[in-house]
Amino acid sequence: MSGVVLSFLGWRAVFLVVLPIALVTLWIGLRRMVDVGEPTRSPIDALSVALSVVGFGGLVYGLSAIGAGGAGAMLPTWVPFVIGGLGIAAFVARQLILQRTDRALLDLRTFRSRTFTTASLIMMLMMATLLGSLTLLPIYMQEVLHLSPLATGLLLLPGGLTMGLLGPVVGRLYDRVGARALLLPGTVVTSLALWWSTLFDATSPAWFVLGFHVLLSVGLALVFTPLFTAGLGAVEPRLYSYGSAIFGTTQQLAGAAGVALLVSVLSVGAAGLTAAGASPVVATAGGVHQAFVVAAVLSVLAIAAAFGMRTPSPAQEPITH
Fold first, then answer.
1. Is 312 helix (H, G, I), strand (E, B) or coil?
2. 72 falls in which pLDDT band (50, 70, 90)?
3. What's the CA gap between 132 and 216, in Å, rounded?
4. What's the rounded Cα separation, in Å, for the pair 216 and 194?
5. Does one domain contain both 72 and 127?
6. Least confident of 183-192, 265-274, 288-297, 308-317
């Protein structure tokens, strides 16, 4: 759909198309969604919100600054990392204090569950590689393979459909075989797809890219449902809302960091090849290759972490106090 809009109306129209969809969704949600459970009034700590913005924002901005090579930046590239690190440290310290009286913005006691912690780690690795790779693909297909935005969108469509259609199937399999039996093959397939992508060059055919994206979608479909279900099932019921919030937060952070990291690697790699005399197409292809190598290495870490996952049950999942 974005390819169609970009081909005929320009990039600003993408946001205009999304706006009415968002408004309709909001209206339906307000009219149809009902509360489940017993709502309670919980204060939002403004200082925690501010510290999270400074901490996470600093890290992501620092990664983006690396990709730009520091050109035109108001601050040296190391400054955002220092500010971000200090912000996150202060945020964590603030939560540790507030959770003593159940007033934390994100209650970190969820990480006392080893299964939840492992699921969060794998989730971050998968989101970083997923969103980073999905950002690289259109750049590669349009600037290297010279495909139109519409053709790019059509090539990505089968993979998206594959992931969506596999969702119910993976859910039923989880009920039968548990988390680890799905996560291990899922992370392996994801890693194989990403290593496949390191073979892209300036002359790769479209079917080669299509095969990579479909295989990546199959692997990720096998990963996400077990991660959500096992991770949230491993925390105490009173911490469910915090576990869900932490999953959402880490997904957003990892996705943004993954995009910034891989685009930074692409930019630095392409700049080096350009300086060595390569053409723009060859330089971009080389930068994309280096970025996909980084994504593939990250995926190997997810395989190692998947060995530590298990299907939680009230009798099996100890909570350390």
1. coil
2. low
3. 13
4. 7
5. no
6. 308-317
